Amino acid sequence: MTMSDPDDVYVHPRYLAGSTSTGDPGLRPALDAGWEISHDELGNVFVPAPDQRIRIGYLPEDDDALWKIAAYQQPFATPRWAAAFSTECPTEFITAFTTALVPLHTQDDAFLHEGLGRADDPHPVLSPLTDADWTVTDNWWISETTSPDGLAGAWYRRGALDHNNELTSNKTRWQMWGGTGYASWYAVFSTHTPSRLITATATALADPAPVLRWKDGLRPNDPDHVTITPVRPPAPTPLDILRARRPAPAPRTVAVPRWSTSTPSAPLPRPSRPAARR
């Protein structure tokens, strides 16, 4: 049974829940695979693959991209692809991405060469969204998929894009977004990002299950569309019920020796000495 803090709440839909207060869930798939972790004096965290060809950065002291992930043909080359997730992006989406990425790294160079070209059909990659009845709008330069409430979406940008510009800006082939105003978030993926990683992120985005958040750290950005539910205490187990029904043991008694509670009997009179004969 997963234990939760008494101040935790469930938030639905998850794309309006915001980020968690820690990046641990997003880093966990890499750390469990033995990737080494390091950090700088500012609190930025870096987790590279053993061969240095994938690098995951959790960067609270950088710009508004809290997470930056890149893959390289060679450790010191220009990245083959890059992805970034903003500060308010729900952590579950980063976790979905890294969970799919880490095992892909073990499959030769699959993590470098499974991106979708600009002339390909983007709809299968975003099928988790359309399967959840999100709306697709297509035109000659972009294909956008939007949630039923209009507060989250994903798009695929058609046409030629500058590779280096994709690596350093938000003008990328793929983008996901959610929320409004100060609590809005984005996730961007350059052209050569493996399509299965984008599909994994889209699956997490479309998941209808609520997510746990700390109540006092919550930043709901649209109260009319967010449902917040307190976490109920866990149901008692059969053993808990049995313990509750079992009568309390009677107070323990200690046997007291009889002679310690009775009055000592008076001594018997001593027999008189027989009279002396005269």
UniProtKB/TrEMBL annotation:
Domain named DUF317: which ranges?
50-102, 146-211
Region feature Disordered, mapped onto this chain:
224-278
Q: Where does this protein have compositionally biased stretches of type Low complexity?
A: 251-265
InterPro entries annotated for this entry? DUF317_SPDY (IPR005523)
Q: Write the protein's name.
A: DUF317 domain-containing protein
For this protein's source organism, the top of the classification is: Bacteria, Bacillati, Actinomycetota, Actinomycetes, Kitasatosporales
